[in-house]
Amino acid sequence: MAKKEKLETKSSTLIVIGMIVVAIIIIFFAVNPFRSSAQDKQIIRVAHNQSAEHPTHTGMIAFEEYIEEELGDRYDVQLFPSELLGTQTNMVQLTQTGAIDVTVASNSILETFNPQFQIFNLPYLFEDPEVYHAVMNDPEIINPIFEGTEESGFATVAWLDAGTRNFYAQPGPIEEPADLEGLKIRVQQSPTNVRMMDLLGGSATPMGFGDVYTSIQSGIIDGAENNELSLTENGHGDIVKYYSYTLHQMIPDEVIVSTALFDQLPEEDAAIFEKGFEVMEDTQHEAWAVKVEEAKDQAENEMGVSFNYPDTGPFKEAVMPLHDEILEANPSFQKTYDQIQEKAAEVSEEANENEEN
User: Fold this and answer.
1) Which of 150, 46, 58, 55 shows the shortest CA–CA distance to 102?
2) Residue 158, strand partner residues
């Protein structure tokens, strides 16, 4: 009993310490002046949870260079990668207060501020990466969703490519849904993903991404689902040798900006910042495509990972009931869902015309 009480006390102490650290960060930024006393420039703090080698950081560097080239006499953009200013959740909270100016939020975090973001979690919402990009680049579809966060203290200004999510498992390649039966697969911690695995016949095991490597290694789970960078950046290719392109999800990350920053920017500066976010977005997308090819090459030739390309039709058919369930539970999603289907038809028609020509 005494041991249990000690563990509970230790756990409570760690939680309190964590809260104090976040509070100190908030207080520090709150009292720290927005302007550098040495150069009399307004500091723009840009923070994210990826490494300095990640495509996200490459996009942030492009943003920094663009802003300082155009407005370098007035702004000093400072980058903080690798969770230097806290976890992703903490950084979103700090962006709400204005202590951080720009950060990257996962789609699942933004769902808590605007439920409309949940639609991007639907499996096979996008037929392929071409449709995915066409939808995310269409302001008529995306802007109403992005604008839904402004009352929470931040604006959503850009989307970052996180690639396609595919299954990788230790027993062997996944060629059809039946191959998932009986397998314990790590999924993101959301009801949509758990239900997806149920429909595919696998056993969903929600857990934090940082626990995946040791869980596969120890046999707690049989595999996971994620993009190719998880094989190399996180070392999963060392212990799982089969990666199957089921293309079941394409979920973006989003760039958010504190309304405290936007509200005080002069109109001409705001226009340049908006262009800077476009530069960030385009650069990240290009860097992502390069990084994926590098990851595939490394995984295949240095780690011995085999890639296979199953027919995605049976997987899509298995999870389509989830579309009906989500739309029935959230009627407000229907308009966006229909717009995405219309965009998919446009992309398909254009592709067919190009083939004919």
Assistant:
1) 46
2) 255
pLDDT at 297: 98
β-bridge pairing 223-226 and 306-308: unpaired
d(CA 48, CA 245): 28
pLDDT value, residue 21: 54
Alpha carbons 174 and 167: distance in angstroms, whole number = 7
Query: Residue 211 is which amino acid?
Result: D
Mean residue pLDDT of the chain comes to: 91
Cα separation, 193 vs 212, in Å, equals 16
- The beta strands (E) that lie in 180-268 are given as 184-187, 203-206, 223-226, 242-249, 253-258
Per residue in 28-78, pLDDT (tens digit) is: 554 444 445 445 899 999 999 999 999 999 999 999 999 999 999 999 999
> What predicted TM-score, i.e. pTM, was given to this entire model?
0.86
Q: What residues does 103 pair with on adjacent strands?
A: 47, 256
DSSP codes, 88-148: HHHHHHHHHHTSSSEEEEEHHHHHTT-GGGGGGGSTTSSSSHHHHHHHHT-HHHHHHHHGG
Q: Compute the distance between CA of residue 4 and CA of residue 6 in angstroms, rounded to an integer.
A: 5
Q: Is the Cβ–Cβ distance between 185 and 203 less than 8 Å?
A: yes
Task: Say yes or no to pLDDT of 326 above 80.
Answer: yes
Q: Which of 170, 219, 165 lies closest to 190 in space, CA to CA?
A: 165
Three-state secondary structure call for residue 15 = helix
Distance CA 329, CA 208 (A): 27
C-alpha distances in Å from residue 211, one per residue of 133, 180, 205, 220, 317 = 30, 21, 11, 10, 31
3-state secondary structure of 283: helix
